[in-house]
Each structure stands twice: as C-alpha cells, then as structure tokens.
Amino acid sequence: MFLERLFFEFIFICSLIFLVLFYLRLFMDVVKLRRANKISLGHGKNSKLERAVRAHANFIEYVPLSIMLSLVLYFHNLLFFSCLSILLLIFGRVCHKKGITNYKEKNENFKFRRLGMRLTIYSFYSSIIGLILYLGQTLYFFIKNHL
C-alpha cells in the first residue's frame, strides 16, 4: 500500500512539474514569435503567432480547472483518479499543441487537435468519476456511522 501511494504521488508531482514547464514553453514560443515579428499586441495577421497565442490561451483555459479537480482527488486519497486525470490532461495538451502549431496552410490536419481536446475532456470525465466515487464513499460512511 505504501509503495503504491508513493508511486502515484511521484507520478502526480512529476506531472505537475511537467505542466508548469510545458506552460513556460508555450509562453516562450509566443514571446519569441512576438520579438521576431516585432508585434507587441495581437497577432498582426501572422498565422504562426496567432496559433502560438491560441495554443497558449487554450492551455490556460483548460488546465487550471483540471488541476484543481485533480488536487481535490489527490487530497482525498483518490490517487488513481488524480493521476489518471492529470496524465490524460498532459497527453491532451501536448497533442493539442502539436495539432495547432504544426500545420500547412492548405490541407490542415485536425487529427491531433481533435485528439488533444478529446483527451482533455476525458481528463474531466475521470475527475468527475473520482469525485462521484468520493461522494459515494462519504455518504456510505455517514449512513453506516449514524444508523
């Protein structure tokens, strides 16, 4: 039991570190493109910059809520669901970045963007399942102790 907990905690903490570093990577991609194109605000009809900005913004739109849900699961000792959720989130965000930034103007392939969004949504689903399980356990033990 102790080794299992240690394994899940290690995975969870490493995943959080990866997400922070990935955020910094997305941020630096935007900064580099802004400097290279001398664009301080907006994207100036530069599609590479626009896509880098959207990859960064999309990360910011989805990751905080998912991390909060994972932390709730983590602190209620539902480490399996916490790790599953955060790993799905990581793979989803990496696929989304690949799909949104690696493109050809004609014949854009949405495969990675769709996969990235699907995995991100699955991350939310796994968190919801874990939270429902937690509520079920809480209700069960409450009823068991008060009857």
Structure description:
This protein has helices spanning 2-37, 47-75, 79-101, 111-146. With 147 residues, the chain is mainly α. It has a single domain (2-146), classed as Membrane associated eicosanoid/glutathione metabolism-like domain (Four Helix Bundle (Hemerythrin (Met), subunit A)), CATH 1.20.120.
CA distance, first residue to last residue:
30 Å
CATH topology term: Four Helix Bundle (Hemerythrin (Met), subunit A)
Low-pLDDT runs of 5+ residues are none
Seen as an oligomer or otherwise, the chain set is single chain
Specify the helix fraction band: over 70%
The appropriate CATH architecture is Up-down Bundle
Mind telling me the CATH class? Mainly Alpha
How would you sum up the global shape?
elongated
Number of strands: 0
- Domain module tally: 1
How are the SSEs ordered, and which strands pair?
Elements: H1 2-37, H2 47-75, H3 79-101, H4 111-146
Helix pairs in contact: 1-2, 1-3, 2-3, 2-4, 3-4
Which characteristics define this entry?
single chain, 147 residues, mainly alpha, Four Helix Bundle (Hemerythrin (Met), subunit A), 4 helices
Quick structural summary:
The protein has helices at residues 2-37, 47-75, 79-101, 111-146. The protein has 147 residues and is an all-alpha fold. The radius of gyration is 19 Å and the shape is elongated.
